[in-house]
Amino acid sequence: MSNSLKQVTTRGILWSSIERFSVQSIQFVIMIIMARLLTPEDYGLVGMLTIFLAVSQSLIDSGFSQALIRKQNRTEVDNSTVFYFNIAVGFALYLLFYISAPWVADFYGLPELSLVMRVVCLGIIFNSLAVVQRALLTVKIDFKTQAKASLIAAVISGVVGIMLAYTGFGVWALVCQQLVNLGINTFLLWIFSKWKPMRTYSWKSFRELFSFGSKLLASGLLDTTYSNIYPIVIGKVFSAGDLGHYTRAQQFSVFPSSNITGILQRVTFPVLCSIQNDIDRLRGVYRKFLKLSAYVVFPLMTGLAAVSFPFIRIVLGEKWMFCAVLLQIICFSMMWYPIHAINLNLLQVQGRSDLFLRLEIIKKAIGVSILCLTIPLGLKTMCFGGVVSSILCLVINTFYTGKLIQVGFIMQMRDLFPTLAVSLLMFVLVLSLQWMTENLYAQLLGGILLGSGFYLAVTRLLRFQELQELFSLLSKR
Fold it and tell me: Which spans are transmembrane here (predicted)?
């Protein structure tokens, strides 16, 4: 990796990390406070509507965000075309969800869900107004500006949410927190980015961008729908309380895995796009990104799985203990998430959104099959099925990576195996500590110190290149 590219990547990772983890840390603390004030049923009600917000975001973006980032000669006409299309889709979706809200409430057998859905879906309109601003800032690898907007929005919305939860507003505390967050974030992106749309719309530009973005749209819709099948099934087959436990477990597992993946995706996509025509260089940079992401995510996820029980009992209390059971299982599924994402990123870099879509269809068919088999066996078994599905999908994801740049499943596993082995040893070591003491704080704090010390010591002793890369990145910033 050249010095200039490394500097751009380092700066991007730094500010993307600041945005993700400063915001998520604040939201994490806020979520803990609100979870103590609210009930699993309150979270379950909002969890039932997650799929509508997620699908709407995929439709609003329509792959245009990635298409704009990838296009080397984008124009103001391109930007404005995407902007107006997003607004039209946003308002159309809100109208659709507003009308269908009573039917959704009937599906779950919860009449109060109708009004909640009509209010919470206002966030769709806020999202539609900021897609282009985020894309243009990402093109510049300017995550500092995005970090400022996200941080301010998280703090203000968090204060609003806690106040409402404390005064007994229940599920409406969660709804208002979400809307305030989206509204302020969108407003600040408009102020900070300084980009304003032109009064123009080009069907030629639309067709050009959509030819690439449409495949990503279909893939995104498929992935979003599949990702939210679990909340739909749990809410329908089990109860709002069970869904509340599941969504909290998923949120805890997402904090390290999905956020680090998001950082890497946002940075690696424009960086890899800039060297997309130099296959040898692309291959080398790509493998570095894979190994570095695994070095960070694998121990975080196995460590979280190991301390899940004392962690949940201390942070949320005894009423959330079933959440700890689910969290321990889900962590072993989510630990592979960054590897999936970076493999799929490469297909976008190479302009192969057709292969991207094909892979998504195959993987989701496998995932749905496993889900159908595990539903009668209970919620825990469904989560174990998610682990199996994640590993099978990894094999599928790496197939075209091997075809395009000769970095297939075997090579990737060879690169990642040392990190995986040390992470699993750390998991066993931390888990064994809980058999030696019943003190929750000793289990949690001791497990964190023992696990992190063991992992760093072993990887340093074995001279892991990823550790040196991290030290190099940190020392330069």
Answer: 21-39, 45-69, 81-103, 115-137, 149-166, 172-192, 292-313, 319-340, 361-379, 417-435, 441-462
**Both tokens of residue 302?**
């196995």
Q: Locate the domains of the chain by residue range.
A: 1-227, 235-477
Residue 3 has what pLDDT?
Answer: 54
| Percentage of residues of the chain with pLDDT beyond 90 | 24
The per-residue pLDDT for range 41-54, each reduced to its tens digit, is: 888 888 888 778 77
In whole angstroms, what is the distance from residue 346 CA to residue 269 CA?
A: 8
Q: Torsions phi, psi of 140, nearest 5?
A: -80, 0
Helix axes 50-61, 229-237, angle to 10 degrees: 160
CB-CB neighbours of 456 under 10 Å: 14
Question: At a CB cut-off of 8 Å and minimum separation 6, what does 101 contact?
Answer: 113, 114, 115, 117, 118, 121
Least confident piece of the model among 9-18, 23-32, 440-449 = 9-18
Tokens standing for residue 130: 């900021």
- 8-12, 294-298, 425-429: least confident range: 8-12
Q: How many Å apart are CA 36 and CA 241, to the nearest integer?
A: 14
Contact (Cβ atoms closer than 8 angstroms) between residue 362 and residue 392: no
For residues 282 and 276, the answer to whether their CB atoms sit within 8 Å is yes
Residues 6+ apart with CB under 8 A from 192: 145, 148, 149
Token pair 């659709």 in the structure block, residue = 96
Least confident of 65-79, 188-202, 410-424: 65-79
pLDDT digit string, tens, across residues 360-378: 778 888 888 998 899 889 8
CA distance 455 to 299: 8
Backbone angles phi, psi at 194, to 5 degrees: 65, 5
Q: What is the mean pLDDT of residues 260-278?
A: 61
- Are 165 and 181 in contact, with CB atoms under 8 Å apart? no
Q: How far apart are CA 265 and CA 345, in angstroms?
A: 7
| The residue to which tokens 């209010």 are assigned | 119
The DSSP call for residue 39 is: -
Side-chain half-sphere CA neighbours of 252 within 13 A: 30
Q: How far apart are CA 186 and CA 183, in angstroms?
A: 5
Residue with tokens 């107004």: 129
Distance CA 323, CA 329 (A): 10
| Packed helices 279-306 and 308-315: angle between N→C axes, nearest 10 degrees | 70
